[in-house]
Design a protein that fits this description.
By secondary structure, this protein is of the alpha/beta class. Helices cover 40% and strands 17% of the residues.
Length: 432
Amino acid sequence: MEPLLGRSAQGVGFIVDGTSTKAYRGRAGRRVLCVVCLSGWPRRGASAVVAPRVLIDATDVPADRGALGRYVDGLIGALDAAGADMAVVCQRADEERYGRLAPGARVVTGPTALSHRSARLAWEQSGLPVVAQQVNADVIHVPYYSMPLRPGRPTVVTVHDVTFFTEPELYSSVGAMFFKSAIRTAARRAARLIVPSKATRDELERVLGADPTKIDVAYHGVDHRLFHRPDPQQVTQVSNRLGLHGKPYVAFLGMLEPRKNIASLITGWAAAVADIEDPPALVLGGGGGWSDEVDVAVASVPPHLRLIRPGYLRFSDLPGFLGGALVVAFPSRGEGFGLPVLEAMACGAPVLTTHCTSLPEVGGEAVAYTEPDAQSIRDALRSLLEDTSRRERLANAGYDRSQEFTWAASAEAHLASYRRAAEQTAADVSAV
């Protein structure tokens, strides 16, 4: 049986046959994993396995980080902690950040123009393969849908979701066309596809007929140093910054785009709280996105209710924002994973979400569910607001469940995918 490498809870590498691994730098700086006994002494006749060197393309991470940034940052930090042989190519503004997150990795910066989408896509086709050659990478990992047509080595692509195919009306026509093309290309050309949920894997198979044997599921993690139960001072500070000064509120965190179902949330919230004596506000945290429906829903909110749109929130404010809410509502119509749900759970917040796509894989039985229409959101939200003990039970259950999702576990799954990509290509070459 092929040994499967991982890390124990104590941070020690292990192989499934009960032995462990230690890493050291071999010739040409390559990381070599040497099989050793648990006592730490090399086993006679043990073989050394050269782990593939992976180049991670972090050039598409936006300045505000967002869910993509939290995925890439969390993954890179965990891969470095796991001893991965890794290089990272990023925008110049992120060089110091990734140097801190992954001190064992080689960090390479791309051209200044990478901050512009069109320039980055052009560079991905010509510049990324060159960087891979320069750092002597065995595998390229592109964590956001697209890939070079001629990468020159096996490439792993993360496909976050396929709602561009299943619900194209939720996107601009140009955006949907681009991502459809990118996903089709990745499904055909990538050595491996990484997806953040079983739901996304199943949709890839159903919609595109993707080969299930080349799809690897790697759940996201949550950084429990950033997302944790807040102390009262953190809650108070955020409340004051929002102008609420201790008043209750329902929270949302994410892009204000059609897929997030913001218009139905606004309408459902307004109906749920309109006749409450001290109605909780609705705070929509996150970037602007685009949605004409949101503007219409906002205009219909009764004047005695308060809706706050603070835009992007600082990372340091998120525990207080999420953990201080009566309910965190995330009634999305489709997700590849649902990172805001997991982060809210980690902050000890009761969460209301939908049964759509991957969200039940994240929330399990530790969150409340609703259908995505406004009336259902109204009924589910009102029920939660009227039941303090249920909110407390969900908050505790969600927090406990969030501890099961770690970037260390996600890194293990990614490393396994990189190895498969390298081994698959080596087998193809040897068969010629």
